[in-house]
Please model this.
Amino acid sequence: MRFDSSDFLATLSLTSTLDDEGLARTLTTSSRTADHAPVRSLYYRRPSGPRAPRLNEQTTRFAVTQVSYGRGGMIASLLGCPECNGCGARPLG
Model:
């Protein structure tokens, strides 16, 4: 699944659900939904920052900060992911 990290505030979302079976994560774009668990590799190529259309300056700063933390958490949660070029080209976990 390809996406531009700048889509996080516009058309990209990450959802986490905790239930009796554990933690489930899904990544949703405007055209696809993917389960986060079977991810085998992550490739960063010119990631861009999030865009926050129609928000005032203060709300934009807050939203961009939250998106940055969320993106970092998503990457850090890829335990066992064998390839991650944006993570020093080493396995995570």
User: Anything to note?
Assistant: The longest helix spans residues 57-76. Helices lie at 57-76. Residues 5-87 form one domain. The radius of gyration is 14 Å.
